[in-house]
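Recall the central idea of this unit: under ordinary conditions, the amino acid sequence of a chain determines the structure it adopts. In this exercise we apply that idea directly, starting from the sequence alone.
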Amino acid sequence: MFKKILIANRGEIACRVIKTARKMGIKTVAIYSDADRNALHVKMADEAVHIGPAPANQSYIVIEKVMDAIRQTGAEAVHPGYGFLSENPKFAEALKAEGVAFIGPPVGAIEAMGDKITSKKLAQEAGVSTVPGYMGLIEDAEDAVKISNQVGYPVMIKASAGGGGKGMRIAWNDAEAREGFQSSKNEAANSFGDDRIFIEKFVTQPRHIEIQVLADTHGNAVYLHERECSIQRRNQKVVEEAPSPFLDEATRKAMGDQAVALAQAVDYASAGTVEFIVDGERNFYFLEMNTRLQVEHPVTELITGVDLVEQMIRVAAGEKLSFVQDDLKINGWAIENRLYAEDPYRGFLPSIGRLTRYRPPEEHADAYSAVRNDTGVFEGGEISMYYDPMIAKLCTWAPTREQAIEEMRVALDSFEVEGIGHNLPFLSAVMDHPKFTSGDMTTAFIEEEYPEGFEGVTLPEADLQRIAAAAAAMNRVAEIRRARVSGRLDNHERHVGEKWNVALQDVHYDVVVSADPKGATVTFDDGASLRVSGKWTPGDALARMSVDDTPLVLKVGKISGGFRIRSRGADLKVHVRTPRQAELARLMPVKLPPDTSKLLLCPMPGLIVKVDVEVGQEVQEGQSLCTVEAMKMENILRAEKKAIVTKINTAAGENLAVDDIIMEFE
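Accordingly, the structure predicted from this sequence is:
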């Protein structure tokens, strides 16, 4: 077995590999860029080597810099993680020439299956059903338009060396094909150092289901069942689960057998994933094979008990698989939610900055439930604009899907993140969405259910009452503390009343709070009452309450006259006032937001790639105004209505902050 391995990656996956290596008694080497000097994976590794500036194309994907780090440290093997160099055959060749083991598949398999054009041709030759498309290389935007018309709109424009949603666009017409080709090409070059593009038919209403395979160098190969990855945004997976709520045993076996046969056809060895599109009749079509560890691998580990990183290391060391297909049973259900540094209230645009608070739920595992959080950040750390915005993968396991979902709901409510925009509220909303809970979702779930973007959650009446009761009880605790503060007037005793008005989500409740040493009973004006108990002290950011013996976890912040409470995807201002204060508050005028209708504001911190208009130009609704790059993704900002450009405040190459004014209109 290896004594020292280098992890050619960063963030949560580097930390994940280090954990298994440490468990196996293997020393680890981290590499880092300028932006990652104080990163968690650097702190966790036994050694760390600096490899260059922050941009990935000047550090993490420069093969020679990684090879220098290997030579400096004497690492015997390299785990590439996912992204960066993980599917680059030139990197695998360089390691082979140096006599260093690649913890991944053979070069031939990477070349055959890692390249999406080659893999599709090979799959077709092997008799595997594939999605219609153009497998050749595309020269320019006009060629892309011509091919798109031949294939038939809508089409998917994809980077041949792509992954993780980078370098992918859906085009419904010639203009979108032209724009999408150039953006995909640019993203592919920046992310993978390979700008080749291909086009395939975009299948509407599909499910995205993938099969995890594992093979050794002795001819043994197995599949570790499937993962459902249909909930995606911009082709980036957001929620994954294993097994799929859609597959039956016969389809699962057919997909698994086909995935294994495909892997064996290219002499595959290591962990890999065969991705399929599955239609409503359970017909499945080969999409691509990822010759690396997938981001969502933890859900497979949770239902099979197999450490995939450990198996990859053992296979690379020449060991045989220690199990056969019949040994791999499905145990329970696992769900993964990806926590992204992006603001769901601003169209999911990337968010950067310092994590002023980062407190994930406590990890645990027993026979009834499990919580696992794979992360690469820490409280006080910086979220950089140079890399993927994912900062953690929160996973839960339970014996049934319903229990795993409930475990995830509580875990999300318990996850504290402050300082940046993040998608925790959106993830909570998905976990409560009827389409998700029923298992009846497709890859169009997000665009169909949130066509105008995410605007928060409107809680039902029963949930509002539970939160109102908890807030009233918490307010009484805070009032008692305030009444006991030192330095008060002599001979003056402040009385904490029992009657209060709780206002939240445009609803007002008149309540009476009757407290005792074990909790409080909150009675509403219609006579209904709720029993509240729990642990909360003024100043605590998390309240673990119980309302009528049902757990309720709340994120709590202080605002004037009440609390900011976040629960189950809702972000609420909860005001708890005396009846007289509530009466006067209703008379207060509402402050209107400023008018920004004649301004184009930068929606995220990013780099201006190009400006498409000039001062004095008349623009039409939907016309491209400029392109902003952030976290390796290009975002085209378009005109919302017909207008004339009166002023442009920026130029290509400039870095902007959120809400910086890009241009003005009349």
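The CA atoms of residues 648 and 663 lie 4 Å apart.
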